[in-house]
Design goal:
This protein has 301 residues and is an alpha+beta fold. Helices cover 38% and strands 14% of the residues. It folds into two domains: 105 residues, no CATH class; 138 residues, no CATH class. Helix 1 packs antiparallel against helix 7, helix 6 packs across helix 7 and helix 6 packs across helix 8.
């Protein structure tokens, strides 16, 4: 009898995301079809947000199946809430990272080993009988039109990274000067486009040596692709929490660079999502809670 092939968490995750990228879909950049806006941040059954790679995995499944609820849980957790997963519903694989003690021969200094384990969850939309709060739709994206919300703009400026604005129609971050450049807000098709672009550039800035000191391995092209992937994921995580629709359309060159990285290294997406989560956490720890939407608008510059 042939031995069953061992499930490889890293390969499973990498192949799941590769399939989306090769189809020309960037799961963290797509809005709900027929829904109210951007993708919500996935939440565990008790309301705490998922982290890192699990955010991406759950976004992929939610977008594919048009799930609206942000809540996810195991089969047992659903039962404990008097819910029942509907017959025929398929689970989604997520991963858990942890450490376990191993006998090192020295009781005062046990050996700690890390592990990664897969487990399966269901979206609340797949479950009958849960309390009403699990079916509550996430808040729709901020409807800011072509004007820039002043409170949100102040939130970004409070991070301490200089943000220059000029007539130059390009958005970029310059590591050597540690400055972000943005075109004038009035030149963007919407305020959401403006803030999703600014979030991407801020994610680059967070990796500066004076902040998280983010360093990538590989040749120049590989380092570039890895850094762009981190910035994209971080921007998606932050925009989801801010309620800003993340609608930037990636070029074929971006997609191909990411595909090449993931094909050669199945753990690259884990490192990228971990670095993205760290960048997102830094922004909220530095700037504080999500700002309340302001009625004041930034005047034309």
């Amino acid at each position: 009898m042939a031995q069953k092939e061992k499930f490889n968490v890293y390969d499973h995750v990498s192949q799941t995301i590769l399939a989306q990228l090769e189809a020309g879909t960037v799961p963290w950049r797509k809005g709900w079809t027929g829904g109210g806006g951007g993708i919500p941040l996935p939440l565990r059954h008790e309301g705490t947000p998922y982290q890192g790679i699990n955010v991406v995995l759950l976004w992929i499944r939610a977008l594919d199946q048009n799930y609206v609820s942000a809540r996810w849980m195991t089969y047992r957790q659903a039962q404990e809430l008097d819910g029942q997963v509907r017959k025929g519903e398929k689970s989604t694989t997520v991963v858990k990272f942890g450490t376990v003690k191993k006998d090192s021969g020295d009781p005062d200094n046990p050996e700690m080993r890390s592990y990664v384990r897969a487990y399966r969850v269901f979206n609340a939309d797949q479950i009958n009988g849960l309390p009403d709060l699990y079916y509550v739709k996430p808040d729709p994206p901020r409807d800011m039109g072509t004007c820039v919300d002043a409170a949100l703009d102040r939130w970004f400026h409070s991070m301490g990274v200089p943000i220059d604005v000029s007539e130059d129609p390009a958005a970029y971050y310059t590591p050597s000067t540690d400055r972000i450049h943005m075109p004038r807000s009035q030149t963007f098709l919407s305020a959401s486009e403006y803030f999703s672009t600014l979030t991407h550039e801020m994610a680059h800035a967070v990796g500066h040596k004076t902040r998280l000191n983010r360093v990538h391995e590989g040749n120049s092209r590989e380092r570039y692709a890895k850094e762009e992937l981190v910035a994209e994921l971080a921007a998606a995580m932050v925009c989801a929490r801010l309620g800003v629709h993340n609608s930037f359309e990636n070029t074929a060159a971006y997609l191909q660079n990411w595909i090449d990285v993931l094909k050669t290294d199945s753990r690259a997406i884990f490192r990228a999502s971990g670095a993205a989560q760290a960048a997102a956490d830094w922004m909220f720890e530095t700037a504080g809670a999500v700002p309340v939407q302001s009625t004041g608008l930034i005047a034309a510059e």
